[in-house]
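Table S7 (text form). Paired inputs.
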Amino acid sequence: MKPNIPIKISTYTGVALVVANMVGTGAFTSLGFQLSELKSPSTIIFLWVLGGVIALCGAFSYAEVGSQIRKSGGEYIFLSELFHPLIGYLSGWISITVGFAAPIALSAIAVIEYFPYYHLSPKWAGILLIGFITLIHSLNLKVSAKVQNISTLLKVFLIVLLITIGLVLPAESNAISLNTSQYSELFTPAFIIALIYVSYSYSGWNAAVYIIEEFKNPKKSIPRALVIGTSIVTVLYTLLQYVFLKMASLDDLVGKLNVGHIVSENILGSGTGNLFSFAISLLLVSGISAMVWVGARVTSSMAKDYQIWRFFRNKEGTIPKAALWLQFMVTAIILVTGTFEQVLIYCGFLLTISSAFTVFGVFKLRLTKHQYDKSTFKSPFYPVPQIIFLVFSIGMVFFAIYQYPAETAIGSTNVLAGIGSWFLNKYVITKNK
């Protein structure tokens, strides 16, 4: 009788997971919001390159932390071990309440918006879609890996195809002139707001660290998955926005959510455009699948350490089914109650704070040399990537507080609720156990 060896995933699946998490709603929806204030194509392209550089700086930092602390759970585990259990708990709380549920909800809205053949309710059709994907990931890890690899491959193929066609064809006659440059826009509040949108679009570059223990060789696979995946998406995103700007007019795009559909119609005609829009809606499902997969691992990690989450514990090597369905319920609530832009700002504000703490953790690791495994991945050009990431992250957080006081106040209230649940667990539930 063969021993029951837990299934482990490869580096390739890790790269696919990162790419699938990153390529989602933002790449196909946020350009319309950016063009409401920014009119220069060169500014837009620089914006997306800068977003990729910031994400890559984060990926380098997470790769170093993840190769040292080889446990699933992402920021929850990292910050608990690097700083204090309360800081780690709050990061996990953010992941459970909005960190994954909000992006999943936003992606579901985009899937329905891009679906061209029937007018479906974004909220209720989105809930059904997420429920179906959650069911798939409740089966086993082998099914999850196969679904993710295939869907991500199709997603990348579709994006490369759209980019290739857009680069080959001549620009639309009414398109924004790509030679127009207004560098003064780089120093405006509108640029910072747009950078917040772009940073959200690049979110997901840290996906692999949530399932570290499910890799065959996490010491090598985590850095490769994070860095390679983030680099691929940076190139794809920048070229995709260039094609969008080349193949549509300003009036076509400003304030529009379904940018990809508009551009595909301009390139291929109405009938074919609908077909391509349908394909885009399918590729966004891959991103939902990736986030559903990894998000529940934070809850299950916290359940091992805190009695308040004990219902969501799972046996070693098994699928965290209860955590998956909790995530589904939170996502459904967000879908029913939130709006696209409000949820985006609210979610991005909290996730930026959590990521900034983790990147700062690289400095803490380097200072504890007696515990440092020198054979693991080292962030290149240290401490430059960490400083770049922290400067932009802190800047975006303060600007978000100034520009969106209502959304950031809701985010702060959420953090206070997390603190309350931590003390409830420590002084009430654990003592009465």
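Next pair, protein 2 of 2.
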Amino acid sequence: METEKSIEPATQNNKHSGNSRVLSAFQTLGKSLMLPIAVLPIAGILLRLGQSDLLNIPWLGDSGNAIFNNLPLLFAIGVAIGIAKDSNGAAGLAGAVSYYVLTAASQAINHALQVGTIFAPANGMPKTLTDIDMSCFGGMIAGIIAGLCYNKFKDMVLPDWLQFFGGRRFVPIVTGGWSILIGGGLGLVWPTFQRGLNVAAKWMTTSHGIGAFVYGCLNRLLIPFGLHHVINSYVWFSLGSFKDPATGKIVSGDLWRFFAGDPNGGTFTAGFFPIMMFALPAAALAMYVCAKKKNKAAVGGALFSVAFTAFLCGITEPIEFMFMFLAPGLYAIHGVLTGLSLVICNMLNIHDSFTFSAGLFDYIINWGKATNPGLIIPVGLAFSVVYFFLFVFFIKKFDLKTPGREAETSTGDVSQITDKKDFDDIAVKYIDLLGGKDNIKDISSCITRIRLVLKSNKSLDENAFKKLGASGILKAGDQVTQVIVGTKAELIVDAMKRHLTI
């Protein structure tokens, strides 16, 4: 009996550690997806400015379209760099190698199976072969292979006569080998997976709003775990298909199809505009109204800043983390209302999309391409009224400690930092609050978050972080940790890395 008691906690810890590692891996993937997604704004701007309803400059449109046409390759490069522990460019090169090898190998195996033998000569294949299309999924898979290979083999030591190919130069070589094997396997299984995706896409697009509602809810509810970019990548870049009349190319994804002129494109993205431009800024106003009178001046600037960021750019995490953990039920309602917004926009035949997020800038530049974009304003105003009174009710009813209602208000405002020395100062303070250098095993950034793997996060003081201007802390297990600091997260992480030896 004594032995069994001593083994059980270890087993539970192993299970807990395993779950933490899985979540950490998915969060790393979600963070890595942001690098290729970050190129979309310039692609969308060029594409829109070049079209006939704006500047009518074809070469501008073609320049933007070139980025969209090569998104899978950009995903391979970006994801590989994002997964690489030191974000080295060699990982990006390996990602490109992996993408080309992976797609060629999978296509070859798929073709060979269709003619009855793996070793069929290429010139003997019939002209009616069906291709497989992994789209951005192929890029993501290639990037994961390359990133993992980089982390494993970047310090590879070979015999002296081969050492030229050692170290980082070895990474593209080994990545190519793994890509052949995995690509061959994908050639066997991807056709079945692709049919499943097509069934899911058909259901989502013909479900009379149910699919849009589910996606809208999941999009918000996965934000606390940093996994919303994973589901976004499917809906934005793989959902449905449309033949671009200008190029004859088949394009996929709600976002990409919208810009290619698909009348059904923008179905799953239009509903975010009312939430991001109107509803969440109204929530910030409600927090200001409910703040203690003596604290309103102190929190007013910060609340205006996050509200304006949401309205202009569609970046909503700084607002959402202000109430996400204080009132999980309220945040769940926010997820449901986001899904409802997608349904209402669907019912009103509103089609609109974005290249970065559903803020004012994308709303204006895509007005001429959207369907019924003017209806977004009354829908958004209606949601803003709902959100304002909903938040006022919840904050007062449950005495939520939203900004300005705490015993002590934040003494720092990260958004106001502009000088390198100030970033260094705040970085040192964050390192101390995180338990010092020895407690930090890994660190990276997302748009608004410091992503960390700590030896232990049990002793972190959330109030101390808030005094430095952070919106909150997210813990997943005893090690995986995120500190929400706003849109200057990357600059803060860069400063922290200058003071760390990881």
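The beta strands are 241-243, 250-252, 440-445, 449-454, 472-476, 480-484.
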